[in-house]
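Q: Convert this sequence to structure tokens.
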Amino acid sequence: MEKNKKRKTDKNILIAFILNLTFSIFEFVGGTLTGSVAIISDSIHDLGDALSIGISYFLERKSKKKPDKKHTYGYIRYSVLGSTITTVILLTGSILVIYNAILRIINPVEINYNGMIIFAVFGVVINFIAAYFTKEGDSLNQKSVNLHMLEDVLRLGYSFNWCCYNEICKYFVY
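A:
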């Protein structure tokens, strides 16, 4: 029973990784086509999510190894390391998003709001699915992934903007 639960944790993190990676690529293209820095910023954020979730997946699997002569307490600390790396990657991404938002405030561009809304709604659905799959985490890693997915779901208002709201809103999302 315990072994199945551990495999489910790995599988759930892998599903969240695949969903985020696929959507971040799709979203970057959409953000470029619509001219929305919010969508492009979100794609960078989602790419950071995907990268950190991929690392978390690898480290979560490693953390399941049994103790040996070199690691007498086992490999569980790799799970904690994964959640730490996730946090650092997301903070770095947030700094890049804020920097690009400031550039857009200085040099605004026209935005295709209708296309932006479509990408925003689609992103919420994808992140909701990833949050659903990671909701019952038995590791710090899976719980960390779940919190990041929930944070993405709650950013729906972030993509509904008028005038400079698109750029200003980013400061409050992160």
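Confidence is low (pLDDT under 50) at residues 157-165.
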